[in-house]
């Protein structure tokens, strides 16, 4: 099975993307919301295996100082197979900002440590629904 990495939203089945995010598990979002998020991002990457969407990620950047990686997810049956690393390396190689931050799903931090990411001591967030973020383990 060969892996194909695509750098465009062209031809993406957003229902498949929603199902992937739900199963990863990353988030439960409507397909149109996912489409808008990815189409409005500076960089995207979609991993296809045998014509099926198996992973994806997106990035926002000021193209000068900072970028933020969002929504990196891989199908649960394929996590640990190198697909996430391939997506992450592709995104970082295409990013023109020297600093990249991200949100890791609680428990996935060791994956990002392997690629040079380090925990931040002063990161903060203002959430519309802090209780749901607390329940998911993102904030205390």
Q: What does the radius of gyration come to?
A: 15 Å
Overall pLDDT metric: 96
Biggest sheet layout:
5 strands, mixed
DSSP strand tally: 5
Taken from the alpha-carbon principal axes, the silhouette is globular
Give the termini separation. Answer: 41 Å
Distinctive features:
single chain; 140 residues; five-stranded mixed sheet; alpha+beta
Give the arrangement of secondary structure elements.
Elements: E1 3-6, H1 14-23, H2 31-39, E2 43-49, E3 52-61, E4 66-74, H3 83-94, E5 99-102, H4 109-113, H5 130-135
Parallel strand pairs: 4-5
Antiparallel strand pairs: 1-2, 2-3, 3-4
Helix pairs in contact: 1-2
Give an overview of the whole structure.
It is a single chain. With 140 residues, this protein is α+β, with helices and mostly antiparallel strands. Helix content is 30%, strand content 24%. It is built from 5 helices and 5 strands. It has helices at 14-23, 31-39, 83-94, 109-113, 130-135, and strands at residues 3-6, 43-49, 52-61, 66-74, 99-102. The protein has a 5-stranded mixed sheet with strand order 1-2-3-4-5, sandwiched between helices. α1 packs across α2. The chain is globular, with a radius of gyration of 15 Å.
